[in-house]
Amino acid sequence: MDYDFSFFLVVATLVTGVVWGAYSLLLKIRHQPYESVKEPLMVEYARSFFPVVLIVLVLRSFLAEPFRIPSGSMMPTLLIGDFILVNKFNYGVRLPVLNTKIIEIAEPKRGDIVVFRFPRQPTVDYIKRVIGVPGDRIAYFDKKLFINGQPATQVSLGVYQGVGQGENMSGAEILEENLDSVKHSILISHGVPTVEDVFVVPEGQYFVMGDNRDNSNDSRYWGFVPEANLVGQAFFIWMNWDLQHYGIDFKRLGTVLN
Question: Residue 27 belongs to what domain range?
Fold first, then answer.
C-alpha cells in the first residue's frame, strides 16, 4: 500500500464522514433536532470539510488527476514545468490506494502518453509514450524504431531550439514519428550512444519510451510496465510554469496532447 496523497484523501474522507455521521446519529438517538444544539468545533469542521474532500477524492481517483512534468524526457511534446491532466477513466476504474481495477474499459494503444508507477520504485510516477503493446516485437537500431518488423515513419523537421530549462536540447534533430497514425515529435541527439536491442512485449505489459529518445530512462533500460502500474492517459496541458526561466508560457495553455 502506498501512503501517497490518495491515501490521505481517503483517510480524511473517512474521518470527517465518521465524525459528522456519528454526531448526527447521536442527536437522532436523543431525539434532538440538529438545529437546536450548538455543534462542537470538531463536528463543525468535519461537516464543512467532508463534502469537499469527498468531491476531490472522487474526481482525482476516477476522472482526472493533475501532474507536473519535472524532467525533459518527453521533450518536445512535454516541457519541464508543464502541468497536465491525466484521464483516470480510459484504462479502467481502480480503487484509490489499493489500485485494484474494478471496471474494465479499454487498454493503452501505441502512441498513447501514459502515466504509470515506476516498476522499480512504485511510489514514483513516470510519464512516457506507449510504443509496444502485449505481443509486439520492438526493435531499436541506429536510433530508428521497428514494430513487428515494420519501421516507424520518421520525417525530419530540422534543428530543435529548446526553451526554458530545455535549452540544453537546442541543436538536436526534431522529427515527426508516426505510430499507428498517431503523429508526434521526437528528439534525436546524434553522437549520443543509446541502447540497441530487440524486445518482445509479454502479456499484460507495455513497452514505453520518452519522446526525447537519447535523454529518457525508459523500457530500453529497465524493462516493461505491468498493466497494474498504469495510472492513466495524459491528454491536456492546463498550465506551464518554468520557475527557473520565464514563468508562465501562455502559448502552451490548453494544448491537447498527441
Answer: 5-63
